[in-house]
Amino acid sequence: PAAGTPIEGKGVTICKYPYDPTVVLGYLSAVFLVASTVAGYLSLFYPYKGKSIPQAALFRSTSFLVFFNIALATAGLAAAFILWPTI
């Protein structure tokens, strides 16, 4: 094989590859993406100086709705790009 150590068996060759942390790092980056997305979502609705704006009022604003949808789409696209090579 191009990489790894061949182990000969009875009519079978098994290749033992060195440990590769790519999969672990990929899942770890996905976990941090979810954490940052949740933190960003919560920061949109966190009360400022003890006063909160109702979510219904925020979503009536067209510019907020566009921003929110772009942020969700970006998070989804980032998740796809992170998980695609990881899985």
UniProtKB/TrEMBL annotation:
Keyword entries, A-Z: Membrane, Transmembrane, Transmembrane helix
Transmembrane residue ranges:
24-44, 64-84
What is this protein's record name? Answer: Uncharacterized protein
Q: Which organism is it from?
A: Aegiceras corniculatum
